[in-house]
Amino acid sequence: MISGISRRKRRKLKSEINVVPYIDVMLVLLIIFMVTAPLLTLSFEVDLPTSNAKALESRQDPVIVSVRLDGQLSLKLPEAKEPAPMDAATLQAQLGALASQDKGLRVIVAADKAVAYEKVVAAMDVIKAAKIEKVGLATDAH
């Protein structure tokens, strides 16, 4: 019997860290952040700056869609001298016809900085509906 007791091996101490409590804390923090993040709404005034970026060189002049302060849209083709005012449906039809002829058509949206952002986004939605992929925003050179 004494020999049976002496044959037992002693247990080694584990030197590992128990991470289960840390995982629990992380899950609780994750839930807290997921609940509070949508509640944090930040609103502040934005005055868009002028750009120092150089204009991209291309083989052809871009088509310019202008957004006026009252929301009126106008289209200026490269060969035209003056922009032609039009409604959103007509603009979409015109741009769609141009895009079907030239897949690499570039369109630039030009708007005064006093124009509501919503009106600029509406103009970009019309351009997107015409299936034009290359859209830029016009800025003043600094």
From TrEMBL:
Q: Which UniProt keywords apply?
A: Cell cycle, Cell division, Cell inner membrane, Cell membrane, Membrane, Transmembrane, Transmembrane helix
Its annotated compartments are: Cell inner membrane; Cell membrane
Q: Which GO terms describe its cellular component?
A: plasma membrane
Q: Which Gene3D superfamilies match?
A: 3.30.420.270
Extract the GO molecular function terms from the UniProt entry. Answer: transmembrane transporter activity
Instruction: Cite the Pfam families for this sequence.
Output: ExbD
The record describes its membrane topology as: Single-pass membrane protein
| TM regions (residue ranges) | 21-44
**InterPro entries cross-referenced by the UniProt entry:** ExbD, Tol-Pal_TolR
BP GO terms, sorted: cell division; protein transport
Q: Cross-referenced PANTHER family, in alphabetical order?
A: EXBD MEMBRANE COMPONENT OF PMF-DRIVEN MACROMOLECULE IMPORT SYSTEM, TOL-PAL SYSTEM PROTEIN TOLR
Entry similarity comment? Belongs to the ExbD/TolR family.
Its job: Part of the Tol-Pal system, which plays a role in outer membrane invagination during cell division and is important for maintaining outer membrane integrity.
Task: State whether it acts alone or in a complex, and with which partners, per the record.
Answer: The Tol-Pal system is composed of five core proteins: the inner membrane proteins TolA, TolQ and TolR, the periplasmic protein TolB and the outer membrane protein Pal. They form a network linking the inner and outer membranes and the peptidoglycan layer.
The protein, known as: Tol-Pal system protein TolR
Q: Which organism is it from?
A: Stenotrophomonas daejeonensis
Q: Which gene encodes it?
A: tolR
